[in-house]
Amino acid sequence: MKKIVIYVALLLLVIGIAIIFIINQPGTTPDKPLDQAENKPEKTEQAMEADKPKKDKETAKDDDTEKRQISDVLSDAVQGTVDYFSNKETHVTAVGDSLTQGVGDSQGEGGYVGILDRTVNEKSQLVHFDNYGVRGNRTDQLLNRLDDEAVSSAIKDSDIVLITIGANDIMKVVKENITDLSFKDFVKERVGYEQRLRDIFNKIQELNPNTEIYLIGFYNPFGKYFEDIDELDTIVKEWNNIGTAITADYEGATFIPIDDLFSDPDTDEELFADDNFHPNDLGYKRMAKRVLSYLTNNEG
Q1: Contact by Cβ (8 Å): 278, 104
Q2: How many Cβ atoms sit within 10 Å of the Cβ of residue 214?
Q3: Residue-by-residue DSSP string for 177-246
Q4: What is the per-residue pLDDT across 282-291, written as a single tens digit (0 to 9) for each?
Q5: What is the pTM assigned to this prediction?
Q6: Which of 229, 199, 215 is nearest to 257 (CA)?
Q7: CA-to-CA distance for 131 and 93, rounded, in angstroms?
C-alpha cells in the first residue's frame, strides 16, 4: 500500500514538472484573465498618426495652404516691414468695429490685425499688438470706449493706433429710415459723423500726443443688400473723403484707403465672407498688406 502511494506521488511530481516545463517554453504564454486578455497593446505613434481621421489631415493641409497664401499676398511687404520694425520696440493698438475685431475671419484669429501680428512677429517678437475691435461699433460708441481704462491705457503706451470706423454709422441711417430711405438722410448724419470722428482723434491725441494715428477707410458692401439705392457708392466715397480730410488736419495722422481692394473689376477673387458684408481671409490679407505698406512708408 505504501508503495502505491509513493508511486502515485512520484507520478504527480513528474506530471507537475512536465507542466511547468511546457509553460515556460518560448512562444507560449499562460492564459490571461478576461479583463487582460481583451486589452490590446498600445499603438505606436506612427500607428496612431495613421488612424487619425482624414479630416484632421485635411485641416493640417489647409493650414499649410493658409500660410502659403499669406506669404504670397504679403511677400513684397514682409521684408520691408521686418527691417522697419527690427530696430525699435513698437506697440500697436487697434480700435474700432468688426473690421478690427476680424469678423469674417474663418479661423477667428483677429482679421487683418491678427495677420499683421503673425507676419511681423513670425521669427521674433518685434511688435506688440492690442486688438480692441468690437463688432457693430459706431463713432459715438468708439468715442465712449476711449474712456475705458484698458483701451485708454493701451493708447497711452502705443506708438501706433489703427482705427476702423464709419460703416456702422451708415448702417444706422439705413436701419432708421428703411421704409423711406433717401440721400438727404445720409447728408444729415454725415455732419454728426465728421464731428464725432474729430472728437475721436482729439481724444487719442490727448491720451498720447506722440502716437501715430492711421484711419483705415471702408468699402461699400451695402449694395448687395440695397441694390435699389444707387447712391450708396457715392455715400461711401464721401464719408471716406471726410476721413481723408480729417487725417490731413492732424499731425502724425494718415488715411489708408481700402475701397479699391474690394471693388477691383479686374479680379474674380472672392473677398467677402459668407455674410457678403465682412471680408473673408483673403480680403483681410489684402487689407493687412495695404496697412503694412503704409506703416512702412511704402504706400501701395
Answers
A1: yes
A2: 20
A3: TTTS--HHHHHHHHHHHHHHHHHHHHHHHHH-TT-EEEEE-----GGGT-TT-TTHHHHHHHHHHHHHHH
A4: 999 999 999 9
A5: 0.74
A6: 215
A7: 6
Residue 287 phi/psi, 5° resolution?
-60, -45
| Residue from 3, 4, 7, 27 nearest 15 by CA | 7
* 150: CB partners within 8 A, 6+ apart: 132
284: which 3 cell numbers?
A: 483681410
Length of the chain: 300
Angstrom distance (rounded) from CA 175 to CA 220: 16
Sketch out the chain's domains with CATH numbers. Answer: 63-295 (3.40.50.1110)
φ/ψ of residue 54, rounded to 5: -60, -30
Residues 6+ apart with CB under 8 A from 100: 94, 111, 112, 113, 131, 132, 133, 134, 162, 163, 164
pLDDT tens track for 130-159: 999 999 999 999 999 999 999 999 999 999
